[in-house]
Amino acid sequence: MFPYDFKHHRAASIAEAVALGAALPDGRFLAGGQTLVQTMKLRLAAPTDLIDLDGVRELKGIALEGRRVIVGAMSRHAEVHNAAAVLETIPALAHLASEIGDRQVRNRGTIGGSLANNDPAADYPAAVLALDALIVTNERVIDADSFFVGLYETTLRPGELITSVQFPVPRRAGYVKFKNPASGFATVGVFVADFGSTVRVAVTGAGPTVFRLSQVEALLQESFSPQALDSVTVPADGLNSDLQADAAYRAHLIPVIARRAVASALGQQEPC
């Protein structure tokens, strides 16, 4: 074999995919391939086997069940954007999906793949955390607050497979990001969700992993308005610095984008 040869396996069911994962310790699940394939091209990943999930019908589909939107892990971003169940109940989630990458990425990338990868600038983690979603796997149900651990790290165990995501329907929600013009990734993205009794706010792109803003949540709980955040400042400690923006700039952006996300949730024009 050449050093980078691999075998391709097309799973037909969750059970078959999990069994292959257990039998092939150096294999990887292949969802949309928008990250894995690129890292393989760069020789940053060299799995011996790819377990293709595209043929697993159990992982597909989007439906409203009671007050929860159930999104199959193999749902493409474009499908989330266009699904009636999402547009009618959580339009902010549909908007978020429409802003991911470019047309090719939106038609190939999947929500399960994005969450398992946990890129620090990905959009879905902000929605999952702010909406207090449940990540369902073949083994268990994981709440959003304990799923995201660190840079490209989650609480998923080896061989564990995300099967669906359950999103509670909020009273209102909004998502706004300051995007990298080349990649579409979030330099800073803020998702705000108002459930009436609680408000949750999640930030992506700014730190090593998505995180909540308890200070902002408390202020919005008292008054759900952009003006409630006029005096908010965010420390730069622990935030990312890269070619796109340093930590201080990201710290400045967070309250600005948060105010715009609240305005979006209220159906108002975003304040400049």
Summarize the helix and strand pattern as letters. EHEHEEEHHHHHHEEHEEEEEEEHH
Radius of gyration (CA) equals: 19 Å
Mean pLDDT: 94
Report the strand count: 14
Low-confidence stretches: none
Strand content: 15-25%
What is the SS-derived class?
alpha+beta
Number of domains: 2
The neighbouring-strand order within the major sheet is 4-5-10-6-7
Helix proportion range: 25-40%
Within the CATH hierarchy, at the fold level, what is the topology of the largest domain?
Uridine Diphospho-n-acetylenolpyruvylglucosamine Reductase, domain 3
Distance between the termini: 57 Å
User: Which CATH architecture of the largest domain would you pick?
Assistant: 2-Layer Sandwich
Shape: globular
CATH class identity of the largest domain: Alpha Beta
Biggest sheet features:
5 strands, antiparallel
- Please report the number of helical segments: 11
Characterization of this structure:
This protein is an alpha+beta fold. It folds into two domains: 59-168, Uridine Diphospho-n-acetylenolpyruvylglucosamine Reductase, domain 3 (2-Layer Sandwich); 172-265, Enolase-like, domain 1, CATH 3.30.390. 32% of the residues lie in helices and 24% in strands. The chain contains eleven helices and 14 strands. It has helices at 14-23, 36-41, 77-82, 84-87, 91-98, 103-108, 111-117, 124-130, 144-147, 214-222, 247-265, and strands spanning 7-10, 27-30, 49-52, 62-65, 68-72, 134-137, 141-143, 148-150, 153-154, 162-168, 172-179, 186-194, 199-204, 211-212. The strands form four sheets. The chain has a five-stranded antiparallel sheet with strand order 4-5-10-6-7. Strands 11-12-13-14 form a four-stranded antiparallel sheet, with helices on both faces. A hairpin with a 6-residue loop joins strand 11 and strand 12. It is globular. The model has no long low-confidence stretch (mean pLDDT 94).
